[in-house]
């Protein structure tokens, strides 16, 4: 299995994909032709932590908009191309930092080759973006709609690009089934060393989409697979970036910022722990500090369970104990919990 | 590795844990002594899909409340015991269907043995609930705070119970680190065939907790590991059950009910897809029908991508196409999308 440390690095603008590290992507849901609106959304996504933004390009005007959007933004921009390879060529001319093509719907072999030539001339990587629902007919005929089929489709297209001496490739293999998606990425990681863009497609609305994406992306990241991630949600793309950051943090791949650990409250808890945990989390979001904070309902889940937290509280009856690195510091009143925690963190 | 089909079944009341299938657990956050409030919460959780409810038992009054709560509820009830093994004995007398002990904080060996004897006399299973933060001191000294340590702690306690000829065991190995949690369960599944209760502990508030739990529980379920799950959230326990159902559905382990697949909208989308997807999802929650519904922003992610959906729409400009099993049925106006989908589903 080729783990992320050993994948071949490619560059979308200044962002390295492959060879270690995991970058966060999202995709605009604005009309690409609306330059101001699209640039504004890209900058909002970037401010939230998005490192690469993808734009739908469905006509020549959208391709031409790339040049203007580029001037108003600072993160790499990927052109998402379906059906018409000529739009890819136009995007390359207009400053796209990476091209995504869906090989199953881009037409004949020579189309892929022309895109490869254009990208090679400007050192732009290509993502072969295989989707379960739009693979080459021959592949589906031979392998069915399976993880194996997505892998074979990707490898066929890698072959086409390689024929053209093109090697700056990123691969994605997305299905709406989490299991099939995970299986496909595990399979391909044993076959090639190209960086992998991972995600679950058509994963649904905020709640179910976050869960499907977390499982699929998270399981692969824990395996050491995946160089760049995109959480697909039928929601504001800002939510995709937030979820992506949480997934990276949960899998130990993002260490910056504050982390809150909190137990589910239970019958032992005598403080309003759900409210306190949410308010502390909200306040931590505004503090740019690498700190692990615990908000525990009672002593059972107190200092012992949270001994690797930098600071925390464990609820008592109308009070709480404040602890640091598992050691009790002092007792405080319930009404002082939030202020005390935030002051102590501020002083750290 | 012992997969869930091959774990040894035990019974918490009428609910089988082990030997195939995955049940959903949650835990009340009411004061157990408040019988009415606790029974009401249990019944709400059960109505949402919870199959086993756990109650904190921190004093004799809470243990005695079990008998009354039992009469007002119908799903198996688990007594959660820390520190005092005598509370476990009292819960067994008062009708608990399963006992959870945390071996690290229950005191000497003879305490565990007494609980085993009491449970054996009434055919009640015991969960050895190891938590990273409260393992036996000797185990931590020897193995550190590692996945291996949690496994060794569990195996030591399995040994104690086995000495007592007690074999109706469930094991959990929870850490607040997703990776350590997953590693621990993978390790123990190679060592014993007891059913596993899986979850990530102190996973945090609704957003981050759902993500951590989805990754940890989801990755293991995809491996074939896990017989019963509990999503821990610092939130209303109803949210734990909702998340658990979504995790089971996403991993192909729950097939009942309607499933919505929807693409993230992008620059190609000309309909208000986020709103439509959310409204359709909400309406589907009230329909008791096994149906897969797709709400797609455009034809790129349309019938092809969603060909395994029973029914769906793909947005156009002020309109949409209605499709069934990937075949286009007819064109409809945007304002008719929700009503048409729900009527067609109702007629199915």
In short:
Chain A is built from eleven helices and 15 strands. With 348 residues, chain A is an alpha/beta fold. Chain A has two domains: 10-250, Dihydropteroate synthase-like (TIM Barrel); 258-347, Sulfite Reductase Hemoprotein, domain 1, CATH 3.30.413.
CATH fold call of the largest domain in chain A = TIM Barrel
Task: List the domain count of chain A as a whole number.
Answer: 2
**What is the quaternary state of this protein?**
homodimer
- Total strands of chain A: the figure is 15
- Compute the average pLDDT of chain A: 94
Main beta sheet strand tally, sense and closure of chain A: 8 strands, parallel
CATH top level label of the largest domain in chain A? Alpha Beta
Largest interface: A-B, 84 and 84 residues
Report how far apart the termini of chain A are. Answer: 42 Å
Principal-axes shape call of chain A: elongated
Low-confidence stretches of chain A: none
- What is the CA-atom radius of gyration of chain A, in angstroms? 23 Å
* CATH architecture heading of the largest domain in chain A: Alpha-Beta Barrel
N-to-C order of helices and strands of chain A: EEEHEHEHEHEHHEHEHEHEHEEEEH
Number of helices of chain A: 11
Helix content bin of chain A: 40-55%
- By helix and strand content of chain A, what is the structural category? alpha/beta
CATH level 4 superfamily of the largest domain in chain A: Dihydropteroate synthase-like
How would the blueprint of this fold be written?
Two copies of one chain form a homodimer.
Chain A: E1 10-12, E2 15-17, E3 23-27, H1 35-48, E4 52-57, H2 60-72, E5 77-81, H3 85-93, E6 98-101, H4 109-121, E7 126-131, H5 137-143, H6 147-163, E8 169-174, H7 178-189, E9 197-198, H8 206-223, E10 228-230, H9 237-250, E11 259-262, H10 273-284, E12 292-296, E13 311-315, E14 319-324, E15 327-333, H11 337-347
